[in-house]
Fold this sequence. Notes:
By secondary structure, this protein is of the alpha/beta class. A hairpin with a 5-residue loop joins strand 4 and strand 5.
Amino acid sequence: xxxxxxxxxxxxxxxxxxxxxxxxxxxxxxxxxxxxxxxxxxxxxxxxxxxxxxxxxxxxxxxxxxxxxxxxxxxxxxxxxxxxxxxxxxxxxxxxxxxxxxxxxxxxxxxxxxxxxxxxxxxxxxxxxxxxxxxxxxxxxxxxxxxxxxxxxxxxxxxxxxxxxxxxxxxxxxxxxxxxxxxxxxxxxxxxxxxxxxxxxxxxxxxxxxxxxxxxxxxxxxxxxxxxxxxxxxxxxxxxxxxxxxxxxxxxxxxxxxxxxxxxxxxxxxxxxxxxxxxxxxxxxxxxxxxxxxxxxxxxxxxxxxxxxxxxxxxxxxxxxxxxxxxxxxxxxxxxxxxxxxxxxxxxxxxxxxxxxxxxxxxxxxxxxxxxxxxxxxxxxxxxxxxxxxxxxxxxxxxxxxxxxxxxxxxxxxxxxxxxxxxxxxxxxxxxxxxxxxxxxxxxxxxxxxxxxxxxxxxxxxxxxxxxxxxxxxxxxxxxxxxxxxxxxxxxxxxxxxxxxxxxxxxxxxxxxxxxxxxxxxxxxxxxxxxxxxxxxxxxxxxxxxxxxxxxxxxxxxxxxxxxxxxxxxxxxxxxxxxxxxxxxxxxxxxxxxxxxxxxxxxxxxxxxxxxxxxxxxxxxxxxxxxxxxxxxxxxxxxxxxxxxxxxxxxxxxxxxxxxxxxxxxxxxxxxxxxxxxxxxxxxxxxxxxxxxxxxxxxxxxxxxxxxxxxxxxxxxxxxxxxxxxx
Length: 727
């Protein structure tokens, strides 16, 4: 019997907290926080520890599964599965072209570099025109705002938490989420540190969240953030509190932004926001007068009808007050591993270079709104989607009107899913292929790891060998390509280099892998050793010798604007026409329908991660169940009491769930957690299924956010009524 302690880190969400895995005879026994990780310092959320349940779950898919005509699944060998998939895919492409093949990837794919690289190469190689992601239910509006502001979709400015004096936080609940689009594993300590230094943390949210309870809370009506921010800017400009010098140096269009904000006085927006004019004026003055300040927003800011505008205005607020690209303000992201930088230079991270077949919506990072997937499958005509690959995703529970998507999947000629479970989406697939977990693969941090107030890097080797017959997704795509006679390197922006790689790959003379690519990028990156030319620089050997991670710099650098902004003038653009048009649309919103008097918002739960961790006994302890948060005033008016069953109806659908009567939401607002509604192949999750809140949301292209095609998941008009109890 051999028991070992192996160092790794969590890849469930952005903090990437350090973990210690106890392994016995190559089987995971437990996970615990790593006290030697320089960032998380012995901290980890319940989900990281509970990942042991996922790793060892008896419901986990460990062999390739092929769907039978009756809807059940049979275990098949990898060769049989891949031969059939490759043959069917080749036939589809031969008849309908590569543009008929689609791919959807869920949130976990963002935390695995290999899962992003090879599937993307494969889809580019066959000419796929149907690419979708969880981003259109999460962060794409932030990406579009960055494209308009900085010319770079991948640029994600983040708050300098350790040095700021004023954190203005909109639509974020980091005491539960632990920080999204910012890497701060000890977020509670960071926020408390601001207050200890004499600063302020102001949380703007329709709900008195866990974070709002701990700091200052400004209650705002759902989906009114754009009015609030425009009013703050109006006050700052009107009272001469802006930093005109900084704005002139860093940006263009300051005068246009000033004029744009003129009509939005706090008095004129109070009816929209519910925030008293005097209170909003004081907030704007305090933010502008703070020694340093930063504005930060996350999913709550991204999921309304004007999410791109809100993300844009958050950065504009920081910039015009002189707090942009400076210590204690908002900093620009730059990765230790410059994958996004290389992709930007190669024009691979696009916006509005193509439009969706259904709805004519713009691409974001080459992907289209997931809400239109069902219609893309069912609508006849050229370019119709006929095959779909799903990676680490469960869109039936995460996109609007998931029932329509579940039905549409049955019309596909081929559907293949990579996952740990048979879930609500892939139970309709032709194949469910067993994917490796985060503990069964090598990893280096990319993407959101660049949004870190401390420059830090950590690599990890696999903690355990893949269980059963699980395989990394990238290997499966490689093997499908080889069966189809394709090289993944025969196309792309670097055609000469790719052509050489393709020739060598076909002849088996080299083995190009995601790991080799990412380690090369580490070495040529801003802190890399340049293959020995830079003494003390980062390389794979140094990471292996420091498994708990390396602090490259205690503080992320300021002064990067000229380096990362991709507009030709190297300035931030405060006057893009898309934003001017969006403000016009803001003023043209239709009045509320009295048949739906309440406004629905979502909420994140500490022991949930979207739709995929409700099969963990550790996380489902204590009789956990799905509950809608409803204010006592609204509950009483509807004849509802705590624990009752409520029917929630929107113009798009209706769900039933349990009531939690609470004062954490104001009258007129109800909050319902997402990620529930289970009816897949996971026993514990099915025993407490809850309801899918996205049944209440619309997948009509005309109901999506205009600039980014985001699903509108906040501010949804609803009504409530009791569910009659059978006598």
